[in-house]
């Protein structure tokens, strides 16, 4: 928590200090805004919700894929970066990029 | 410090203490994603305990009968059945990857020798029948013991097959598959007190099903806006009232709960009751809405109250009072000054569940660092306990834990900055009648019981 000033503070500074003492949340909010100044106007609003609703969405365009393959001719398409969390921009997904979607054939260790 | 609990019948005593009973799961540090437990649920008698995991598997434990010759295994839970409930899928039309993770398991009340449960992933609900087989028929006429068909012309005499005992076999079979009714991700299922219907809720809609009918489902709540740009809140949890089969509640990401009555209209978009705690507008911050999002809602066994879990607290609501909760319990208020980093590492979106004990006198919920919290509603005492391998000696009494928020850290206290936010206890369950609790700590399932005197 913020330390209390030993010098007499102006009314404004005092209110600010009071705010900090009363609301750790507002301190955290200030920290966040300092790190991400462009953070959305609608906090926790539609952007966040829409992202939640889109969970699991994968993007693939067969036209792009085939065009990219044609351009590269005999060369391999560039593989995804190790951190393949999102497929965006110039990267065209290839079969090697796809995570394994096999079901668990192994029994649960809870049953062991 | 005295523990917190309420007896099923006897009520909590001041000398109550929780002891370690069992732990299930692997010990190794490297946790496979598939092994992460995603749901825990006792059945109505408490004799069966089901878990679901991210790998789509269900493991059911059964409580051992009391046995005088083995007093230590009184009430021990051992594996009864395990099966693959859901498998990963890909919806080619929508280009959507469907996780096999089991979001919820709900038991049906037992009506015959078999046990039934509903398990769901993001898109599909399945009704599973778990039955025992301890007899086998022998002496068939048309096939021999290996199962090979006998040539009918070779049969000269007829015999009556007889039933012979065999080693107990527990079989799980999917009896119904309720699919294709949810565009968004299913977060809740709830069996109705009529034992014939159940609801399933996703982010924007709630559907009503009949347990016998899989090709039809009634939509009872739809909060999808005409224009998705106007989307401001989603459904986070839903549950049927334990006694009134026409009543259910659903919670939202804005911290509100709506109670709906299916007798008033077919489409319950208009609520009968609206529960919301007024907020002080001057204290509003960027985080306010996010931390007010309700991650779980549970009716009390009595049906008179309901409990909601938001990021920092648990609230008990009287169904007769909509304008504020009757009780509020702080789970980990010290996290309020860490919200910035919790937002950055996504922990602020963790969905904690909560549960009542059998007599509704106590409530329990999880926290970080493998801590979980219990609140006694009568004495107003609370306790923090830890699910860890260190305190896993048989019948070892659990020591209360304390998080230090100020400057001086006492011995045995842990400072907020030392908490392990990867060790989250999101799922806990309380036996419906006794003081036995199941706590899921990532890939391990801990079972704690009251001290045996």
TrEMBL record, chain A:
Pfam families: Endosulfine. Keywords: Cell cycle, Cell division, Cytoplasm, Mitosis, Phosphoprotein, Protein phosphatase inhibitor. Transmembrane segments: none annotated. Residues 1-24, 74-112 are annotated as: Disordered. This is cAMP-regulated phosphoprotein 19. The keyword Magnesium does not apply. The keyword Translocase does not apply. Residues 1-11 have a biased composition (Low complexity). GO terms for molecular function: protein phosphatase inhibitor activity. It comes from Grus japonensis. It is found in: Cytoplasm.
TrEMBL record, chain B:
Coiled coil: none annotated. PROSITE patterns: PR55_1 (PS01024), PR55_2 (PS01025). InterPro entries: PP2A_PR55 (IPR000009), PP2A_PR55_CS (IPR018067), WD40/YVTN_repeat-like_dom_sf (IPR015943), WD40_repeat_dom_sf (IPR036322), WD40_rpt (IPR001680). Keywords: Repeat, WD repeat. Gene3D superfamilies: YVTN repeat-like/Quinoprotein amine dehydrogenase (2.130.10.10). GO terms for cellular component: protein phosphatase type 2A complex. Belongs to the phosphatase 2A regulatory subunit B family. This is Serine/threonine-protein phosphatase 2A 55 kDa regulatory subunit B. It comes from Grus japonensis.
């Amino acid at each position: 928590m913020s330390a209390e000033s030993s010098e007499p503070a102006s009314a404004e500074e005092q209110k600010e200090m009071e705010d900090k003492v009363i609301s750790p949340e507002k301190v955290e909010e200030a920290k966040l805004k300092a790190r991400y100044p462009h953070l959305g106007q609608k906090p926790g609003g539609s952007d966040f919700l829409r992202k939640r609703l889109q969970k699991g969405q994968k993007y693939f365009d067969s036209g792009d894929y085939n065009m990219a393959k044609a351009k590269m001719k005999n060369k391999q398409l560039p593989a995804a970066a190790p951190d393949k969390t999102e497929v965006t921009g110039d990267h065209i997904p290839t079969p090697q990029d796809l995570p394994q979607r096999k079901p668990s054939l192994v029994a649960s260790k809870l049953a062991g | 410090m005295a523990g917190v609990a309420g007896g099923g019948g006897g009520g909590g005593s001041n000398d109550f203490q929780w002891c370690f009973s069992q732990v299930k799961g692997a010990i190794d540090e490297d946790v496979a994603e598939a092994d992460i437990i995603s749901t825990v649920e006792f059945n109505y008698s408490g004799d069966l305990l089901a878990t679901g995991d991210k790998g789509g598997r269900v493991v059911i434990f059964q409580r051992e009968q009391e046995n005088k010759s083995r007093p230590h295994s009184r009430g021990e839970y051992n594996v009864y059945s395990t099966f693959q409930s859901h498998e990963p899928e890909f919806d080619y039309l929508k280009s959507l990857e469907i996780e096999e993770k089991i979001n919820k398991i709900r038991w049906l009340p037992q009506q015959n020798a078999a046990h039934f449960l509903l398990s769901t992933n993001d898109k599909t609900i399945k009704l599973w029948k778990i039955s025992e087989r301890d007899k086998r028929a022998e002496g068939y006429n048309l096939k021999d013991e290996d199962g090979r068909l006998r040539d009918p012309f070779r049969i000269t005499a007829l015999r009556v097959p007889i039933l012979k005992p065999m080693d107990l076999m527990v079989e799980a079979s999917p009896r119904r598959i309720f699919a294709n009714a949810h565009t968004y991700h299913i977060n809740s299922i709830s069996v109705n007190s009529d034992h014939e219907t159940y609801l399933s809720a996703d982010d924007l809609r709630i559907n009503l099903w009949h347990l016998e009918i899989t090709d039809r489902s009634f939509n009872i709540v739809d909060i999808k806006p005409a224009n998705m740009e106007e989307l401001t809140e989603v459904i986070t949890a839903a549950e049927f009232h334990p006694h009134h089969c026409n009543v259910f509640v659903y919670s939202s990401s804005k911290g509100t709960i709506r109670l709906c009555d299916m007798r008033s209209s077919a489409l319950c978009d208009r609520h009968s009751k609206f529960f919301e705690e007024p907020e002080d507008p001057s204290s509003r911050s960027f985080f306010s809405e996010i931390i007010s999002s309700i991650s779980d809602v549970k009716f009390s066994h009595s049906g008179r109250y309901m409990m909601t879990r938001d990021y920092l607290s648990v609230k008990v609501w009287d169904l007769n009072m909509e304008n504020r909760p009757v009780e509020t319990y702080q789970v980990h208020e010290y996290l309020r000054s860490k919200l910035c980093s919790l937002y950055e590492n996504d922990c602020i979106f963790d969905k904690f569940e909560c549960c009542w004990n059998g007599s509704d006198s106590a409530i329990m919920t999880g926290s970080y660092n493998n801590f979980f919290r219990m609140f006694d509603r009568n004495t107003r005492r609370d306790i923090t306990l830890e699910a860890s391998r260190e305190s896993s000696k048989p019948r070892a009494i659990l020591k209360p834990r304390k998080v230090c928020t100020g400057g001086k850290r006492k011995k045995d206290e842990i400072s907020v900055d030392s908490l392990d936010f990867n060790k989250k206890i999101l799922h806990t369950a309380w036996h419906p009648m006794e003081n036995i609790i199941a706590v899921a700590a990532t890939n391990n399932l801990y079972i704690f019981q009251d001290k045996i005197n």
